[in-house]
């Protein structure tokens, strides 16, 4: 179908979804958008269906039965996009923490600069985070340092969720073997891309915390990321072919 598609997972994003969709479609580079909604009780999917009448060829909706986790939403979206032969497949949040104006920069990193994976990085040029309390900034920064130490990846922002993948990367990764469903999913995808030798480039972006809606961060998500990384690394050492 199109050259590039933005996958936006949603759960109770009624306050943001129309604004983010319209903003993406207002960019100079034309992308398609796939919303993967986990049966939001606030009517997010209903709002998307209304917008689809206005954007029938470029906006798509996949509805799932319930809240199943960020990672499974993206995997659902990846498989959907691969079946339709998109070349560039993006991850982006619905809450404007990821600025749609940066889409073209991630796209160009893959299209022109030879990246297989382009990461919208908060930490490649310092700490570029707005509206986060200092303890959360420190926790996120330390988490990325910790992941770098355990995995050996030379990536400053290992937990970033603003990413462009070439389709070849997603085809090379066995998506059915992805273990994590929370934010550790972002680490696992980067680690598997790294192990398979794909070129990863970090593009500096400014991350702005949401001003509408509610954050999905929880203690269990953080625990999965902290303890799951060690398990993931050990598994890669002893069973690298299947990993």
Structure description:
The chain is α/β, with parallel strands linked by helices. The protein has helices at 17-25, 44-54, 70-83, 103-111, 134-151, 167-172, 184-195, 219-238, and strands at 4-10, 32-37, 59-63, 88-91, 117-121, 129-130, 163-166, 200-204, 207-208. The strands form 2 sheets. The protein has a 7-stranded mixed β-sheet with strand order 3-2-1-4-7-5-8, sandwiched between helices.
Could you give a short description of this structure?
The chain is an alpha/beta fold and 243 residues long. The protein is built from 8 helices and 9 strands. A 7-stranded mixed sheet has the order 3-2-1-4-7-5-8, with helices on both faces.
Features:
7-stranded mixed beta sheet; two-stranded parallel ribbon; 8 helices; alpha/beta; 243 residues; single chain
Question: Going across the major beta sheet, what is the strand order?
Answer: 3-2-1-4-7-5-8
What can be said about the biggest beta sheet? 7 strands, mixed
The H/E string reads EHEHEHEHEEHEHHEEH
Per DSSP E runs of 2 or more residues, the count of β-strands stands at 9
Helix tally equals 8
Average pLDDT figure: 89
Question: In what range is the share of β-strand residues?
Answer: 15-25%
Percent of residues in helical segments?
40-55%
> What structural category arises from helix and sheet content?
alpha/beta
Oligomer: single chain
Which consecutive residue ranges, at least 5 long each, have pLDDT under 50? none
Rg on CA atoms, Å: 17 Å
Cα shape = globular
Our measurement of the CA-to-CA distance between the termini, rounded to an integer number of angstroms, reads 30 Å
